[in-house]
Amino acid sequence: MDDLGTISMGRPARRGVLAAGAALLTLGAAPAVAAAPRRVRLRLPAPSGPHPVGRVALRLVDRSRRDPWTAAPARELMVDVRYPARTVAGHGRAPQMTAREAAGFDRLNNFEGLSAGRVDWAATRTFAHTSAPLDRRAAHPVVLYSPGVVDPRSLGTTLTDDLASRGYVVIAIDHPYDVSAVEFPGGRVAASLLPQEFEKAQRSGPAAVTALLKKTASVRVADARFVLDAVGRAFDTHRLRRAPIGMFGQSAGGFAALQTLHDDERLAAAANLDGVLAYVQDDHDEGGLASVAAEGVDRPVLLMGSEGNDRRTVPSWRELWRHSGGWRRDLTLRGSRHATYTDATTLLPQVADRLDLPRETLTTWVGTVPTHRAVAAQRAYLAAFFDRWLRGGDGALLDAPSPRYPEIDFI
Fold first, then answer.
1. pLDDT tens digits, 362-398
2. What terms describe the molecular function in GO for this protein (predicted)?
3. Domain membership flag for residue 8
4. What CATH number is attached to the domain comprising 248?
5. How many structural domains compose the chain?
6. Is 305 among the domain residues?
7. What is the domain range of residue 334?
8. pLDDT of residue 389
């Protein structure tokens, strides 16, 4: 998802928060692709770590605040917890999305040029096994994940499954009424309200749009902090050894990760995958800084940008860098686009191949970096970052450019 408000992942020239309107209002109006006899089924890459992966989906209820989108008396969240499992025997592989979530994603996603009904999103299986027992032989660092605006928590599965296979407990957060569709136990679905909210704000003018974008960001940060509360209670209830906690996210999720790092000392480190840290029309515009960029942070930060996005070109990243006193690294994945930092980098090449779409459509979505190289680089650098700051590992990959990953530029 493009930053805080832009809904089309692949639009090359309209990536800032005020570009959200046109994208939101044209969702579903993309040109139709040629008819196919059946919907395309997709595969995710297997995790690279030594541990089998377990997964549970949990409903969390924050009774201390009303839902900011619906005024319901409590804020409800759905999260996926992925973790190193003791065994996965007898536990089936979890779907990437439920059928109801897949239907919502099919109606409201960020893939311009792909019409609804062409992909069987519910058929994709992850490499996480439902309700497999946790491996309790060691303390596992905890990492939170927040997706981009409108994107479901499951669109970061390539990275969350991989971190779990390397020994992390990863909690992927859905933000209801922001995300395309969130299914709660019993089959109730919360569909995104952002399209109509944005249309209403756009009619009122730029100030209303900015206020909506600030609200969207603040709700995400509040959700993340509530999940941190839940993690603390889980440690106490189950008498688990306390482990450091990190967070990462893509686009608006990357914004939420760094803003939560700024606001909450319980986070030890955070990584931002191509998320602007300001309320501006374009990533490269000056002004409109979020407090994390205006004030900086004193704990470790990893910035990973798509090609053309780094601290030299994105003012909010420059200001974060200038005001921060902690360890920080700024990396660029050459040939990447905004959506490269999601499961789109694996799934959309399969879609384009099966539906015989033009190469230009695919490169608009995920750039020119080969899928296997994009996945390997993201996994390696994200794991190196959390290994260094949550486990005390050497994280040497972050010290200098590596011939193993020539696609990564150190800025």
1. 999 999 999 999 999 999 999 999 999 999 887 789 9
2. hydrolase activity
3. no
4. 3.40.50.1820
5. 1
6. yes
7. 17-393+403-410
8. 96
Dig out the tokens for 43 from the structure. 């595969």
d(CA 230, CA 360): 44
* β partners of residue 169: 142
Answer whether 218's CB lies under 8 Å from 229's CB.
Answer: no
Any domain includes 113: yes
- What is the spatial distance between Cα 101 and Cα 95, in angstroms, rounded to a whole number? 11
Please tell me the pTM assigned to this model.
0.91
Give the pair of three-digit tokens for residue 369.
């970096």
- φ, ψ of residue 142 to 5 degrees: the values are -105, 135
Q: Cα separation of 193 and 199, whole Å?
A: 10
The two beta strands, 169-174 and 75-84, are: antiparallel
Is 11 a domain residue? no
Q: How far is CA 174 from CA 108, 191, 313, in A?
A: 15, 12, 30
Closest CA to 48 of 407, 391, 395, 377: 377
User: Which residue shows structure tokens 């009619």?
Assistant: 203
In b/e form, how buried is each residue of 22-56, taking b as 16+ CB within 10 angstroms? Answer: ebbeebeeeeebeeeeeebebebbebebebbbbbe
